[in-house]
Structure formats: C-alpha cells, structure tokens
C-alpha cells in the first residue's frame, strides 16, 4: 500500500535578516541584534538535517510549518532539503500577525496536485495568525484532502488569561472545517425539511461529511484543554464520528428551535466532531513548558480520513514525536531529571532544543548563552511530529 509521509513543525522564529514592518523582527531578529546571515544559515542547515531525517530518512511528502516569516524564507529552507526538486510551497499567504510569523504548507509535486488555498482571518483586537487551508488531490488515486495549518495564540501572559484567545481561534478553525464537510446554507435551503428517510439526500450530505480533512498545528493547548475538546470538538472517542442517519436519531442532537423542529434545522446546528490522533502519546509532549512536557503540536482528522471513506486513511500507528539523536545529541545527560507520572522535567527553564545564537542587546553588547550550550547549536523549542496517511 502506498503512503503519504506527513509532518508538522514549529520552526521556532525562522526570520529572514531584512528589516520589515513587523514589530518583533524589528526589535529582535535583525543583524544589529545578532540575527545575521550566519545565524540564519546555520539554523536553516540544522532544521534541514532534521526534516531530511524524518520518516526514517525518507522525508515528508506533506509538511506544515509555523513560525516562518515569509515565502522567500520557506523557499530557502526547501533549497537545503535533499528532495528540494520535488517540493513546492502551497500559495503562501502573509497573515497580519503582529510578530510577522506565518503558517505554510510544503508538498511533494510527485505526490499531489495543488487545487486551491484559503486563509481564514481571525478578528481579534490585535492581528494574529490566520487558519490556512490548502486543498490538494493525490495524483495516484485522485482523492482530495483539505489540510488546515494552525498556530494558535501563545500562553504568554498566563494560560487561563489567554485561553479565550485560543477558544476564539478554535471556533474559527471549526467553522473552516464545516465549510468543507457540511452542505452550505444556500444549498441546505433547497433540501426537504425532513432528511433522515430520504436516501438520496442522506447520500449527498454524507458524501461531504466524509471528506478528508487533516488539521495540524501548534495549538498552544493540550488535547484535553477546553479549546480543543469543547470548541474545536476534537475528541478521543471514535464513537462520536457517525453518519447523519444515526445523528438524526441521536438523543443529544440539538433540536432548535422547538417550534420548527426539522432535520434541516438540526443539521444546521450540529457541529462536526473530529478525532484527535494524539491522545495515545500522552504524557509525552512536543515542548517544555512550565516545568514539563506539553503536547501542543497535534494532528486531528475528520471522520472520513479516520475511517478511509474517500481514498485516504490515517494510520494511527504511524504517529510519532521525533526525538531522534540528531536533535538531542548536543544535550548533556544532566539536563533532565525524571519526576512524576512519567514526565521529564528540565532542571533549567530554557529549552535544550532551541537554536542558540549570539544575541546582542540594544547597545550592541553580547547577551548570555545558556549554560552548557554552544552558539549555533539547536533547532527549535518544539519537536516535530509525523504521521502516515495510507493511499487506498
């Protein structure tokens, strides 16, 4: 069976060295502050080595990225990869993020045909990252897949203080999913009021319901946090992902308004449940935060992709957090100490995987390098995640 190697990685502040209008890059990621061509090139080399090593050295066929400044930087990273000739950037969209960092998707031209891309802008009081949707077709069997790349607001300022921001993005991401898997209102209005016994209409709405959707990203929340469970509706329970005939009979299906209780109304208000692939990896994680691992980087799939309804099927056995020797060989053995419930806690707060360069203060003086680290070592403060999608 042919397969698609999938990966996602938060690259950890991969900026260019050209002055831009973004606040963060002007304040920190510029040559006068130590982020010069030498630092950028070395970080890209380190990142490229890890990307090439993913999937046992085969490399990814589809890879979501975040914390990357622009398309030019994405192209420069591709040029350092072993399979550079087959990779393409999927219609890069510059988001209005206040830090000047974006999400993007890289795909293999030997595996996919690009169809279209769309950005879902998040309307906060300050600009933040879009939810970026890319629709592709698999060349081998013409199966379509919609990939949504996410980078939700950070916990800087406090987990609970910033939680409403992530809930807001979760609602926007859920809406983007429903744009893919549910019949739009303009078409719904033309359907009969009662659907459950109409086999033709059921077949039509289930065809959309079973589309392949792959959500990936750095959510800055764990799979069990409210934004993921209650607002994105990404669950570890496969039994929640059922067809519409069963949904219409389900006692918990929202029946509103009561005076006009039709299948069409119930369809409109029923959310699309998703399956979060990452629960089996807990308590492992992808980033060190507040004294332990958190599983912020995740793959989440639609019913169709989970069960292989339309030519593609997520292989849950292929899920992995890449913590290879290549990423960890510079970490001293005394950096970690085991503590409680199978977690690994760092002795110091700084991430041992994060790329280190010689930062300078506003006066041009060198700032400290973390203890036990050398300049130009490291990768990102996140580990990459990888999975496999089977082509049926």
Describe the secondary structure blueprint for this structure:
Blueprint: E1 3-14, H1 23-27, H2 37-53, E2 62-68, H3 71-78, E3 87-89, E4 102-108, E5 112-120, E6 131-138, E7 144-151, H4 159-181, H5 185-188, H6 199-209, E8 213-218, H7 226-231, E9 234-235, H8 244-249, H9 263-269, E10 274-276, E11 287-289, E12 292-294, E13 297-301, H10 303-307, E14 312-321, H11 325-328, E15 336-338, E16 344-346, E17 385-391
Parallel strand pairs: 1-2, 7-8, 9-10
Antiparallel strand pairs: 1-17, 2-4, 3-4, 5-6, 6-7, 8-13, 10-13, 11-12, 14-17, 15-16
Describe the structure.
The chain is an alpha+beta fold and 392 residues long. The chain has one domain: Deoxyribonuclease I, Chain A (4-Layer Sandwich). The chain is 24% helix and 25% strand. A seven-stranded mixed sheet has the order 5-6-7-8-13-10-9. It has a six-stranded mixed sheet with strand order 3-4-2-1-17-14. The model is unreliable at 330-349 (pLDDT under 50).
Question: How would you summarize this macromolecular structure in one to three sentences?
Answer:
With 392 residues, this protein is of the alpha+beta class.
């Amino acid at each position: 069976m042919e397969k698609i190697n999938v990966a996602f990685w938060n690259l950890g502040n991969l900026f260019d060295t050209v002055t831009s209008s973004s606040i963060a890059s002007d304040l920190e990621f510029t040559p006068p502050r130590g982020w010069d061509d030498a630092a950028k090139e070395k970080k890209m080399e380190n990142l490229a080595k890890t990307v090439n090593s993913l999937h046992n050295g085969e490399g990814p066929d589809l890879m979501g990225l975040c914390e990357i400044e622009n398309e030019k930087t994405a192209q420069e990273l591709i040029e350092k990869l072993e399979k550079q000739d087959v990779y393409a950037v999927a219609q890069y969209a510059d988001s209005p993020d206040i830090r000047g960092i974006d999400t993007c998707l890289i795909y293999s031209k030997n595996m996919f045909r690009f169809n279209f891309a769309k950005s879902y802008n998040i309307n906060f009081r300050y600009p933040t990252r879009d939810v970026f949707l890319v629709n592709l077709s698999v060349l081998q069997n013409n199966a379509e897949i919609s990939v949504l790349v996410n980078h939700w607001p950070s916990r800087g300022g406090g987990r609970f203080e910033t939680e409403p921001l992530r809930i807001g993005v979760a609602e926007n991401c859920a809406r983007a999913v429903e744009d893919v898997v549910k019949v739009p209102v303009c078409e719904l209005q033309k359907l009969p009021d009662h659907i459950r016994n109409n086999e033709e209409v059921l077949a039509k709405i289930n065809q959309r319901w079973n589309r392949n959707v792959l959500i990936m990203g750095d959510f800055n929340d764990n799979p069990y946090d409210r934004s993921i469970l209650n607002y994105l509706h990404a669950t570890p329970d496969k039994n929640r992902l059922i067809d519409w005939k069963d949904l219409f009979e389900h006692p918990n299906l929202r029946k509103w308004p009561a005076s006009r209780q039709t299948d069409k109304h119930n369809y409109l208000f029923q959310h699309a449940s998703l399956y979060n692939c990452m629960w089996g990896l807990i308590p492992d994680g992808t980033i060190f935060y507040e004294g332990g691992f958190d599983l912020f980087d995740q793959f989440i799939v639609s019913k169709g992709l989970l069960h292989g309804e339309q030519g593609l099927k997520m292989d849950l056995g292929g899920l992995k957090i890449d913590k290879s020797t290549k990423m960890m060989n510079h970490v001293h053995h005394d950096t970690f100490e085991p503590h409680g419930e199978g977690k690994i806690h760092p002795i110091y707060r700084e991430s041992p995987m994060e790329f280190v360069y010689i930062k300078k203060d506003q006066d041009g003086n060198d700032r400290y390098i973390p203890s036990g680290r050398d300049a130009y070592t490291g990768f990102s403060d996140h580990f990459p995640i990888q999975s496999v999608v089977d082509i049926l």
